[in-house]
Amino acid sequence: MKPKVVYKPISSPEGIEDHVVYMGRLQNNARRYYQCALVIAILVTVLFCLMAAQLLLFPLLCTSSTEKSVSPDNSCSDPCSLVLVESIPEGLEYSSNATINPSVYQSWKRLLSQAQSSVDIASFYWTLTNKDTHTNHSSASQGEEILQEMMKLKQRGVRLRVAVNPSGSKAKDADIDALRDSGAEVRVVNLPHLTSGVLHTKFWVVDGKHIYIGSANMDWRSLTQVKELGTAVYNCTCLAQDLGKIFDAYWVLGQDNATIPSPWPDTFSTTYNKETPLEVSLNSTASLVYLSSSPPPLTAKGRTDDIDSILSVIDDAKKFVYISVMDYTPTEEFSKPRRYWPAIDNHLRKAVYERHVTVRLLISCWGNTKPNMFPFLQSLAALQSNKSHYDIEVKIFVVPASEEQKHIPFARVNHNKYMVTDRVAYIGTSNWAGDYFIRTAGSAIVVNQTGTANATNSLQKQLEAVFLRDWTSDYSHSFHSLTSYKEKCIF
């Protein structure tokens, strides 16, 4: 018996074609699905990379972009004019052809006469009248006139703000009380509490476009009985507003129960410093300028500390460093226990030893000079010798005093606080001892005009002329020639 054969029907051509079409469609769908999946995968990968780039790289780009957008354009188009000013004490006379600059009194009078909206003054103390010093000296008239002009500012619609160190005695506040009564705003900055120092700064900011900065206190003796040096800068908004930031810091600290911010808000920061100074024309001479301050706790972001500016000026000198200051000592004068502070001393010695720079120090000598300053000066002077070829010399400057002038308290002294090199002029408000840069509030203006060829009337040249005038005068005495400090300094 034959097995039963099961026959499969033969598909028709139409059936085969349908099957092929069906299978093709499946393959096409699969291909499209794969392509879609691939595209989606690529898109996801690209999006992931973009997100990663945004998270990792974009912040850096943003930072770079932000820094660039706020990077300072340190040029200033103001037509700034600068005047070197001095107070020459009555009875101190130079030769007829000696360099004589406009007086501090004249500059203060001019600033007050030009004031239209505001006068801000940072000061150590106020003693502009005979009443404050319990004297009856005719030369106090200039100080008394300045005080009277200040008391009229409110009537002229000019706002007067004064930041001052605590006097420690109500009897010493006669000028301050008179100013308050006339409408002035006064804040006492308690730096003795905040930093264990004092507000030793001496500067003015007028209308946000004129300034005075220098050694002169708000004291009638600073106009007629004490040798002072400073500078007034007119029509220089960029510089005045920068000095105004230092004043604003004092103003904030003059509030009740004030504390020192750390860090200071950005509104107090500056872009003008020793690395990126202000580019400005002073007396039609291209100049690089910045303002430094002390102590470090009061120095906002971008501001150069005063001691750093001094050291950088010394280190920058190629030929000479001339210094005229009232006090010079590589110590902290008022610290307990006593501390050695050789920062400036070391840089001067290095300049002489390594770079063969000529160094001259003109230090003041008067009835209040501390004898412990002289051994340190003698140590510097000892470097000078024919064998060593180290060119460093120290002289003391003595302001003469008549019998009448000897009875004026705290007068008859060279109170200058400046340095000039072959490249830079530095005018400050601090004595050169450690305390003034560590705890005490001071400020300075630093001017470099060496970029201009043949700048014969530069501040550097003017200041050099002042120094050489004093150095070669009859009032300067070689350190080695002294036989008795008390005899020479009128101790």
UniProtKB/TrEMBL annotation:
Membrane topology: Single-pass type II membrane protein
One GO CC term, this protein: lysosomal lumen
Keyword Iron-sulfur part of the UniProt annotation: no
Subcellular location: Early endosome membrane; Late endosome membrane; Lysosome lumen
Recorded superkingdom: Eukaryota
TM region positions: 33-61
Domain PLD phosphodiesterase: 195-222, 410-436
Family recorded in the similarity comment: Belongs to the phospholipase D family.
Protein name, per record: 5'-3' exonuclease PLD3
Source organism: Engystomops pustulosus
Lineage: Eukaryota, Metazoa, Chordata, Craniata, Vertebrata
